[in-house]
Amino acid sequence: MSEKNREGKRSARERLAEERERQKGRDKQRRALVVGAAVVGVLGLAAVVGLLAANSGDDKSDTSGPVSVPAGAVGKDQLALPAGKENAKATLTIWEDFRCPACKQFEDTYRSTIHELTDKGQLKVEYHLATLIDRNLGGSGSLRAANAAACAQDAGTFPPYHDVLYKNQPAETDDAFGKNAKLIELAGQVDGLDTDSFKKCVEDGKHDSWADKSNQAFQDAKLRGTPTVRLDGKDIFGDQQNPLTPQKLKQMVEAANRG
Q: How far is residue 140's CA from residue 143's CA, in Å, rounded to a whole number?
């Protein structure tokens, strides 16, 4: 083989090798583009999923609006709903959640005693509403019931409606109070409450922001839970060593009135 032919074959091999290197480079670049596109797609999907998750909550209530204070609300920032005569010498302060089973147990045990003492003018009660169960178990029943109770306060029928809600409290995991229709239906058990103005107040969520502010005040106070019960500022409920009874409550209130 002549020197010229050997040089020609060598050049052909070199050109083939160079082409193979160029093809490897193109293949590498193509793989990089495919992988990059896949990563972008995954990130985009994650962003969409995250957005959907962020907007998938069941509670559509808007508590960011201006605070509409219920008529006659009392206390700091007007966050308490009163019962009893304003000039009563003893004050019972109760923090509660309408979905809370322990709150229902307290109400069922002490309801008649509290009514007796308020009717005598010896005791006034200030109810602070919390929405803990909504946060812990989901749903909106605590908030919806708190708003409805505030609407009943506007109508001058908070104490009897308050009692109706507890007497008809659903199971803790049943968010029946999350339906405005249920709360309006229960208003039929209170004389004079089943009105168009009450229905509109409930359906509009008129006092949602107020209820949210009340719950925030409960959180800020770092109370142990619901119910929290204080007589003239002293915690009287939940002490296992000295449990409260209706008779003890009556005695303490009567002592406060003598003093």
A: 5
